[in-house]
Amino acid sequence: MLSLTLASLMDEVHAHSGAVYLLAPDQPVLEMAVTAGLPRAFAAPWERIGLSAPLPVSEAVRERRLVWVGGEEEMARRYPRIAMVLPYPFSLAALPIATGTRAYGAVYVTWPGAHPPELSDRERDHLTAACDRLAVRLERAAEQSLPLPPEPDLSTAPLLGQVSGTLGSVEAVRMVARLPYGLCSLDLHGRVGFANAAAADLLGVPAERLVGTQLWASVPWLNDPVHEDRYRAALLSQHATSFVALRPPHQWLSFRLHPSTTGLSVRISRAGAVRRPNRPAPPPGDAPARLVDISQVLSLAGALTEAAGVQDVVQLVADEIAPAVGSQGLVMLGSRAGRLLVLGHRGYRDPPVVERFDGMPLSEPTPGSQVLRTGVPAFFESREELERLYPVLIVNPSTFASWAYLPLIASGRPVGTCVLAYAEPHRFATEERAVLICLAGLIAQALDRALLFDAKQRLAHGLQEALLPHTLPSVPGLESAARYLPATRGMEVGGDFYDLVGTGDAAAAVIGDVQGHNVTAAGLMGQVRTAVRAYTTVGQAPEEVMRSTNRLLLDLGSDLFASCLYLRLDPVRGRAVMSRAGHPPPLLRRPDGRVRVLDLAGGPLLGIDGGAVYPATEVGLSPGSLLVLYTDGLVESPGTDFEEALAALGHRLAELGDLPLDELADALVQPRAAAEHRLDDIALLLIRS
Description:
- The chain is an alpha+beta fold.
- The chain contains 20 helices and 27 strands.
């Protein structure tokens, strides 16, 4: 079913290669079921991929739509992981295999770089119709509980050396044999189908030993991923490629690869001396280098660079690395103060099986702590083997059958242990162990960065919480509410601040913004807020508070400036006296719902001019009036006019101003709180008389 559908689909749209993925049972994982047109090894890094992975086939299933990538530049921009492994000119379309109620998998097909940058309507219709038909057939098979037997990848044309000759083909072989340069043919897997005498002489290998083998396997000095990359580039792009290689001890040969959809024709000739870093040829008898391993590591390394915090690393390993290596369970362990720390886990139906290790001393005889202490990986191919060495695990065992315990070592020090669990008994071959250990090194670097990032975030948030008021005081005749949102760039800590100080029957309020979004800005903000409180306590008038704070900033010698709005509130007399230093104007909502901007006179930013004056303005506050003090992050954003944004805030305030203050505060900051990226901090202080 799958092979024939894929072959028909590729033929209808003249695609070069493709594959069908099916969703794994009970797992959010897509598994490659059948491929065509190119060796499966080309897509080996994506044999099993998480449904949440940022890849075309995953996206097609998640969003139930066709995903089109029109060339190598678009691939590099949208899907850098693929472009890193396959940096060649080709186009790709991925489509879901889904009915109206259920998704079964996905299909992708590719075209060489000569394909137009846009998919034609005819191609789009053919692709969609074929995937819809396949979805219906899979749905019927599921309804009848019919299993899908494994299907082989679509075969390619047979090797030339295996085809019975005709008079024409015999004469062609004679003609090629007479040519003075080497010629050989390769199938899609790089196996030699024919080689003339000149090619055998140049390569130094008899023709009968070449036929039927991969070229780089029979010729040891061609065992180089760089040369294999040129073969992959030719097949995927369908453009001629070339490279030079050194035949020991000093003979340089030129290789020109001419691709077709069935294989490659290779012309070999002598080349002049080429300057190139001196790399020794692999010793005879070594197994050929497998570029798929390198590709897989590159792809997963690209994924790990996207992780910021520890939970990002855990999620990426669960979504990307565990499916790629066939693991169904994951535990990430760290350490703190001599004890194990469970950083995260996935795939365990009974979480206490894992969580009981959290806080366990590192001296306890468990494989996780042993690997973390020693830095030596451990592989257990059966439950009996694990429990024989670590009897403590017999109590409350997990349902898994095999485990790989990988030490996570960054900069020569252990940062944790990655535990990969397998549902079925699993044999860890030497090559697989090497790949897993290599991947563990990449995970370790990502985890080390993530631990540092999380520590900085905790420090920043703790500092911000310490510098801002935990609660607002209760002032007779006044209600108040406040909100603070940090910027999402940098350390998520900044210089926006607010405060409300009770002074008997009156109160003083302040809101300000110290330039910057870092610890320096936050520290200076704390000093400004403390100074304003001190000047308020000694009874200075609003204009004097601003002048004193301005002189303080200049005396501190900081190169940062601050905007500020300070007001003294007298709810008994129904008035407020305000002084402003370069800060956005407050809004006043009257009891009848009308909103006005209080365009107060003011002075320059604090910290610029020691002789600056900050005139005070008195404003009447009738009962039920609402003052809205805010920093510019609430109304300013790239491409938005400040006056229009301020007017929009006024409209929202007019509509929602009768809400309880806490609900109103949430409503006013909600659009910014929901944004994925905030370029600036936001502080909001609401005061109702």
